[in-house]
Amino acid sequence: MRLAPIAHDGGALRGKRAIGGGRRLLRYVLFQAALVAAHHNSVLKAFADHQRAAGKS
Predict the structure, then answer these.
(1) In the chain, where do the E strands start and end?
(2) Is pLDDT of 55 > 70?
(3) Residue 3 contacts residue 22 (beta carbons within 8 Å)
(4) Whole-angstrom Cα distance, residue 19 to residue 40?
(5) Which residues contact 47 (CB under 8 A, 6 or more apart)?
(6) What is the DSSP letter of 25?
(7) Residue 23 has what DSSP assignment?
(8) First to last CA, the chain
(9) Would you state the pLDDT for residue 23?
(10) Is the pTM for the entire model greater than 0.70?
(11) Rounded CA gap, 41 and 34, in Å?
(12) How far apart are the C-alpha atoms of 15 and 42, rounded to whole Å?
């Protein structure tokens, strides 16, 4: 049983990463929790804004 997502990387792969493995529902719940935290927690909001300003998605 895997909880952590696994990045599908390779030497020839370039661009956006695709995440696979782990539990889909768990990944979804953690992502939603991170979005809510980035919206309501001032420290995480500042970090998210800094990442977006640097061009991160």
Answers:
(1) 6-7, 19-20
(2) yes
(3) yes
(4) 26
(5) 38
(6) H
(7) -
(8) 29
(9) 80
(10) no
(11) 10
(12) 31
User: Tokens 């500042």 map to which residue?
Assistant: 46
**42: which 2 tokens?**
């001032």
Residues paired with residue 33 on neighbouring β-strands, in sequence order = none
For residue 4, pLDDT beyond 70: no
pLDDT tens per residue, range 6-54: 666 666 766 666 666 678 888 889 889 999 998 999 999 999 999 999 9
Compute the distance between CA of residue 50 and CA of residue 34 in angstroms, rounded to an integer.
15
Give every CB contact of residue 39 below 8 A, 6+ residues apart in sequence.
Answer: 45
Instruction: Supply 34's token pair.
Output: 């991170």
Q: How many residues does the chain have?
A: 57
pLDDT band, residue 3 (cuts 50/70/90): low
* 3-class state of residue 37 by DSSP: helix
Amino acid of residue 5: P
